[in-house]
Amino acid sequence: MSLPDPETVPRREFCKAAVALGGVAGLSACLDAGGDGTDPDADGSLADVPTGDPEGAPSRQHAWNDVLERDENGNVVAPTHHVLRGLSVSSDLVDVIGGGDTAALDDARRRFEDALTDLERAFERSNEGLLFTVGYAPAYFDRFDNGEDGPAGVELPEPTALTSMEDPEFDAADVLVHFASDSPEAVLAAEEALFGDESAANGMSVTDVTDLFEPVDRRTGFLGPGLPRERRDVQGVPDDAPIPEEAPLFMGFKNGFAGSQAPEDRVTIDEGPFADGTTQHVSTLQTQLNAWWDQENHHQRVAKLFSPTHAAEERVGEWGEKLGSAPSVTDLPEDALEYAREEGVVGHAQKAARARDDDGTPPLLRRDFPTTDGDHTGLHFLTLQESIADFVRVRDAMTGADLADESGVGSRLNNGILQYVFVRRRGNYLVPPRAHRSLPDPQP
Ligand code: HEM
User: Fold this and answer.
1) What sign results for the dihedral spanned by CA atoms 444, 382, 50, 5?
2) Strand 169-170 to 421-431 pairing
3) CA 348 / ligand 1 centre spacing (Å)
């Protein structure tokens, strides 16, 4: 991928492209584009990126909400820039694990923990600094002699296809690191210090762990008002799609309302050695939105994404601004089948909300973000939940195969947004508590 001309696009847009490019090239391009005092000081620290203190870090790696801001309706404001780095453990480390060399494994563990603590020192744990989680795939635990049943006390299945409409690839990495920040320089610098050629980030040295991992893949994205609109030049969306300025999604709306997100407590493993951890499902979804923008009107888009009631009662507004803190999908007629039969359309959020807990709590904490990886629109659909089974249950509700069979809506057509969304990849991970985030033993 190539970078746009920094003279012709705003710095924000240029640096978004630099995050997608990554590496030293991406980082230095973003710094060179400075202009607003973002050149690093002589000591390499980034302007406006606060340093941090590992001492206060919570046990839950995924405890991000307490440091993220809220909008005027109380919805968590997600960080803008996201990078997912998939890594395999290096062949030397595979030998160490397989050979049961505990001294060498302890040394690797200590060094990785030092490197992660260095990052926490280099960046405040916030949207202005850096948020990150380290997750481990079933394949990682398989490498241990005592890992054949996976991590102790946690169901962590290999990813599988979850609908009859998909034929996804499966993540090949052992380890997945999710970096997030409002600062494009922060995600790039953290990534380069941990897995690239840099030995410091934000003016602080970072322990070298490059011998422990081999890069497998890199995925990127962004979440914020106006960001999809400025990337309408990619495949999968018309160049002139009237995506509202305020919309954070290529489909033209906002997501992640407080009322439709699981609280962090709901997604946290509450017992066993991995208590305070969570499970993570990451699917890479490609979206084909030409017909969404060229053939559907606003009313139809609202009906398909939310529900026909939302469309008829004009509950949503142009991009979701009328919804406040909740998409209000729980006061719809209860029988989704009957409803779909009458309306001939069933909404995405309406379907997915059928999988809420009996007390109305949503089981998934969605931390998904749009992407233009491969110069195509898509969404890295990252969710946290107590168990992968929760994800499968919600995904079944979202797929709505039960509705398609009997209601007259098709398996794809008029069935929420299925017609526009294509699952390309899936991966399952355990995000351990902080105490076990560094190369955990399956039975720590
Ligand atoms: C391109 C893909 C997708 C887009 C653009 C999208 C968009 C949205 C939007 C706009 C909402 C309503 C607002 C809100 O977030 O509260 C929503 C709700 C939701 N979506 Fe999606 N979504 C996508 C894929 C998925 C997938 C693959 C799942 C799989 C499980 C899913 C599960 C949910 C759930 C659980 C809710 C909340 C329902 C509730 O209120 O309980 N979404 N989505």
Assistant:
1) positive
2) parallel
3) 7
pLDDT in tens, 97-152: 999 999 999 999 999 999 999 999 999 999 999 999 999 999 999 999 999 999 99
In a domain, 363, yes or no: yes
Which ligand 1 atom sits closest to the C-alpha of 394? 30
Domain that holds residue 286: 160-171+223-435
Task: Kindly state whether residue 71 falls inside one of the protein's structural domains.
Answer: no
How distant, in Å, are the alpha carbons of 79, 121, 346 from that of 402?
36, 50, 12
Query: What's the average model confidence in pLDDT over 285-304?
Result: 97
Q: What residues have CB less than 8 Å from 174, skipping those under 6 apart?
A: 87, 88, 89, 136, 137, 139, 140, 143
- Asked whether the predicted pLDDT for residue 38 surpasses 60, the reply is no
Q: How far is CA 403 from the centre of its chain?
A: 28
Q: Is residue 6 part of a domain?
A: no
For the segment 318-369, what is each residue's pLDDT rounded down to a tens digit? 999 999 999 988 777 667 777 778 888 999 999 999 999 999 999 999 999 9
Smallest CA separation from ligand 1 atom 41, residue: 353
Q: Is residue 353 part of a domain?
A: yes
365 and 63 in contact (C-beta within 8 Å)?
no
**Residue 350 Cα to ligand 1 middle (Å):** 9
Q: Which residue owns the Cα nearest ligand 1 atom 17?
A: 349
Q: Extract the tokens encoding 251.
A: 């489909």
